[in-house]
TrEMBL record, chain A:
Keywords: Membrane, Transmembrane, Transmembrane helix. It comes from Novispirillum itersonii (Aquaspirillum itersonii). The chain crosses the membrane at residues 28-51, 97-117, 144-166, 202-225, 237-260, 294-313. This is Uncharacterized membrane protein YjgN (DUF898 family). Signal peptide: none annotated. Coiled coil: none annotated. InterPro entries: DUF898. It comes from the Bacteria.
From TrEMBL, chain B:
GO terms for biological process: proteolysis involved in protein catabolic process. The keyword Glycosyltransferase does not apply. InterPro entries: DUF7092, Mito/Outer_Membr_Metalloprot, Peptidase_M48. The chain crosses the membrane at residues 102-122. GO terms for molecular function: metal ion binding; metalloendopeptidase activity. Its cofactor is Zn(2+). Binds 1 zinc ion per subunit. Residues 9-83 form the DUF7092 domain. This is Putative Zn-dependent protease. Residues 162-339 form the Peptidase M48 domain. The keyword Cell inner membrane does not apply. GO terms for cellular component: membrane. Belongs to the peptidase M48 family.
Length: 364, 341
């Protein structure tokens, strides 16, 4: 075996690159079977499908020779999902049929969401295992409310000038709320670098806008079957312009947002340390993700999935995951044998499923 | 001493809640499992958990006390579990995953079956549901739609009051002949982008555009158009179409919902394609109804055909295509059908 106990001499910091050992063909087969069973069971299987998908990606992601695990079962996810669907259904009916209740219900969402987010993140962390040690998330209600809801208002009032600052505050809060076993994470990140990332993104957005609109117009005209705008009547021309604007916005968000996301991920990981070693030395991480390459992968993935009517989805997912994982390295200050799990059970699956179904993603 | 040591699997053991690996061996002797780790042999007590099988992923056996045995030898692990009579979780999935072509064929067949099933069920369900909705609520929906259209599409009519009264009287004569309630009224609007058009909103108001009145001055022809709209109201087509499209939308998003934004890309055009077949049937039904109604109300039988001919003359392209996506059948076909014989 690769991981025999090492002699307890304090070694120099050792680089452990993260590796993805899965394959496109392997995931395609798993995805296809999941799709078949989900269709055949009217969607019930999707809970097991989620677990098998997560297990595939976690189990093929290896650090220092050991794989991660997504340690829960389809039953747990199904029960959580059932309650989540019921909650969302009741919610939609209430807002749809009792417009008068919109204000108090809005308040319930505003003040309830931080709680749901915390529980959801905690569930996802606690079912994540590496070498028999679980992750944990210990965010507080007040700080989630503050960083994800309340502070948005003053940031808008500054004309979004405060957004990089808020992003750093969120990254730091999230990072420092995570634990690996009992070991805490810590984030040191320069505020200037966050501003630089946003500035680069805005510039890239402006540069992208021109060709994006060009492509949009080209697409719209091409789809309409004619080549000359003049031959269209005013209604059709208006339609073409509208489609062009939508296509422009679409291409813009599909490239610029991933471009920003990659920078924030790299900034966060490069500034993250993990404590908990006996000697007090810190493990650290590095991330060499190229934002341009990451954005290109996201955009070309989207195009491939759309053109193939979804058949290339597994290829796209593996491609992005492989690139991201391959760019991350853990620098261990000493051997990785000394972590200890906190004795906690993984509750909060309902919140995790509500976040999933409603598309709430709070991630680094 | 156990005389015959059974099959073994090598791996790593992590004591409960630690990341410290110990070289370990899992052994099945006479149907019971035991674990050798750190120089200690211990029986594996009942209540252990086994991670499910996935191609290329390490297998884990978790003891009730939280200790975890992990092995890269997946096939050895499966074989060892089998000798102890333990069900190998995920075994069926793994085997299915090796039969890609079979899965693909089943998937295509099942999808076709589902679409066919829905194509039969959804129109029937919409028809039934539309007739369960009380007329008062249907009228409310129609009024709501009119308000929305007034904000975005229509502008107030420019027809003289007298002309409006005359046309309303004509409309009421048709409505009373049809046996529809007096709440069904005629509204006048400038159509703008809709041009020469008439629209039957659920439960009541039929909207006639000024452009239509200008295009078709003859009462008999206009009566044909209005009777066609009354045909839609009589069969509650508008409501059925609303219910139908929401049922399709729900079914489609239920299926491809959770994977990315794919449903947004596909659903709009697919739904239009699926639904256009029914709308064309609705139009033919309304035409047939209009022919009978105008005859009963004493209008000239060629009215509808004349109106459709006038509409065809304003049409630039695509009037006769009756293409897959269009909601109305080709105009020439409809004129043929509407000609008195």
């Amino acid at each position: 075996m690769t991981d025999l106990p090492t002699p307890p001499v304090s070694p120099p910091p050792m680089a452990h690159p993260l590796r993805f050992t899965g394959s496109t063909a392997g995931y395609f087969r798993l995805w296809l079977v999941n799709l078949l069973l989900s269709v055949a069971t009217l969607g019930v299987w999707s809970a097991w499908a989620k677990v098998r998908t997560k297990k595939y990606f976690y189990g093929h992601t290896r650090l220092a020779g050991s794989a991660f695990d997504y340690d829960t079962t389809g039953w747990v996810i199904l029960k959580g999902r059932a309650v989540a669907v019921a909650v969302i259904a009741v919610w939609s009916v209430l807002t749809g049929f009792a417009p008068l209740a919109a204000l108090p219900l809005g308040a319930v969402v505003f003040f309830g969401l931080p709680w749901i987010i915390n529980r959801g993140l905690r569930f996802n962390a606690r079912v994540t295992v590496w070498r028999n040690v679980r992750f944990d998330f210990q965010g507080s209600y007040g700080r989630t409310l503050l960083y994800f809801f309340v502070l948005i208002i003053p940031v808008y009032m500054t004309g979004l000038l405060g957004l990089p600052w808020l992003q750093r505050a969120r990254s730091r809060y999230l990072t420092e709320s995570y634990r690996f076993g009992t070991a805490p994470f810590h984030l040191t990140a320069d505020l200037g670098e966050f501003y630089a990332a946003y500035l680069r993104t805005v510039l890239a957005g402006v540069l992208m806008l021109i060709p994006a609109i060009g492509i949009g117009v080209g697409l719209a005209v091409g789809l309409d079957g004619s080549t000359v705008l003049d031959s269209l009547n005013s209604d059709q021309a208006a339609g073409v312009t509208l489609v062009a604007i939508y296509a422009g916005i679409f291409v813009l968000t599909a490239t610029v947002l991933p471009y920003l996301r990659a920078q924030i991920l790299a900034l966060t990981l490069n500034g993250t340390t993990l404590g908990g070693s006996a000697t007090g030395r810190l493990h650290r991480f590095s991330c060499t993700l190229s934002p341009v390459r990451y954005a290109w992968i996201c955009l070309s993935n989207l195009a491939a999935v759309a053109v193939s009517l979804g058949l290339l989805m597994p290829w796209a997912t593996v491609r992005l995951h492989r690139y991201t994982v391959g760019a991350i390295t853990a620098h261990a200050a000493e051997d990785l044998d000394g972590f200890v799990s906190a004795q906690e059970t993984a509750s909060g699956v309902i919140s995790s499923e509500i976040m999933d179904l409603e598309g709430i993603s709070v991630a680094l | 001493m156990p005389s015959d040591p059974g099959p073994t699997v090598d791996g790593v053991f992590y004591p409960a809640g630690t990341s410290r690996p110990l070289a370990a061996t899992l052994t099945a002797t006479g149907g019971t499992l035991s674990l050798t780790a750190g120089g200690l042999i211990r029986p594996v007590p009942d209540g252990f958990r086994v991670s499910e099988r996935l191609t290329g992923v390490a297998r884990a056996l978790t003891l009730p006390d939280g200790g975890r045995f992990v092995t890269e030898d997946g096939s050895g692990f499966s074989a060892l579990l089998a000798t102890c009579g333990h069900r190998d979780r995920g075994g069926l999935m793994t085997r299915l995953e090796q039969r890609g072509r079979l899965v693909m064929v089943l998937l295509v067949a099942l999808t076709l079956l589902l679409v066919l099933g829905l194509r039969l069920m959804i129109p029937a369900a919409s028809h039934w549901l539309a007739h369960q909705i009380p007329p008062a609520i249907e009228r409310q929906i129609g009024r709501g739609t009119l308000t929305t259209l007034d904000h975005g599409l229509f502008s107030p009519t420019t027809l003289p009051e007298e002309e409006q009264r005359r046309l309303s009287a004509l409309f009421n004569r048709l409505r009373d002949t049809a046996g529809l309630p007096p709440e069904v009224t005629l509204e006048f609007r400038q159509g703008n982008r809709l041009k020469a058009n008439a629209v039957a909103l659920p439960g009541g108001p039929v909207v006639l555009t000024d452009e239509m009145v200008a295009l078709i001055p003859q009462d008999d022809a206009l009566a044909g158009i209005l009777a066609h709209e009354l045909g839609h109201l009589h069969a509650r087509h508008g409501l059925q179409q609303m219910i139908r499209s929401s049922l399709w939308l729900v079914s489609v998003t239920l299926y491809i919902g959770d994977d990315a934004g794919l449903s947004d890309l596909v659903s709009g055009s697919t739904l239009a394609l699926i639904d256009s077949g029914y709308s064309r049937d609705d139009e033919r039904d309304a035409d047939t109804y209009a022919l009978a109604l105008t005859a009963r109300a004493g209008f000239s039988p060629g009215g509808l055909a004349d109106a459709l001919t006038a509409l065809r003359s304003t049409c630039r392209t695509d009037c006769d295509s009756g293409s897959l996506l269009s909601t109305h059948p080709g105009l020439t076909e409809r004129i043929e059908q509407a000609r008195p014989r």
